[in-house]
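Page 42, continued from yesterday. The earlier attempt failed because a stray header line got pasted into the input along with the sequence. Redoing it now with the clean sequence only.
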Amino acid sequence: MKEEGRSGGGSRRSRKKKKKKKKKKKKKKKKKKKKKKKKKRRRRKTRRRRKKEEGRGVYTGDNSWCPTEPIIYSYNP
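This time it went through. C-alpha cells are written below.
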C-alpha cells in the first residue's frame, strides 16, 4: 500500500513517524470574585431598653410598665 505524496520504498516500520502537532489549550478566563457585602449590626434591643429606663414609666416590680400618672377614667364629663 503506497501512501499519497510519498516516493520511494521501505518498510512501514523503518519509516520515521511524523510527530503530531499538539493543539494549544485555550486559557480559561478567571472569574472575578464578587465582594461580599458587610452586614450592618442591629442595635435595636439596647435602644428599647434605654427608652424604658428614661423615665417614661415607673417600674412596679411585676414586669409591667405603668405610666407615671395614673389615668382616671370617668364617665361623667
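Notes: The longest strand covers residues 58-59.
Reminder to self: strip header lines before submitting.
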